Amino acid sequence: MHQRKRSVDDNHSSTGYYVDGCLRKCRDRRRNPTPVLSKYTFVGGRRRNRRQDDKYYNYYVDVIDHKLAKIVVLIFSLSTLDALLTLILLNRGASELNPIIGYYLNLGNSYFFTFKLALTGLGLLTLLVHQNFVLVKKIIEGLCGFYLLLVTYQLTLLMFSA
To answer: How many H-runs (helices) and E-runs (strands) does the chain carry?
Structure first.
């Protein structure tokens, strides 16, 4: 695809590149990978796809959607509240139905919190990186609704068990 040419023409001695049959005089910016943290991490960079037809395909962007990031923070907060309410309900005589969570609860509260919040955080981070994949926004919205219902249910249980 890219071929180096020592001399652009007889009058110039700089390096050039042929891309699709056209000579480029500047250095190819795509030769080096994009760094994870750069001056474009929070400002600048690509925020959406370039073509209208591309909205039906999976694609990555350089900047995270701020609205979606707020929803992800809300989900993480609700997950933390879920963990706290779970411990309160267990102290009042409830039982954990999830065997994996039950295993970590048997190890101790700190193991339970670490596992639950790490699993939730890594999952949400993975979804946020893939924010422009076809179903990811729907999954994030569904998780938000699920955690809102779960916390409401736990608060209801607490009100009637007191």
So the answer is: 4, 3
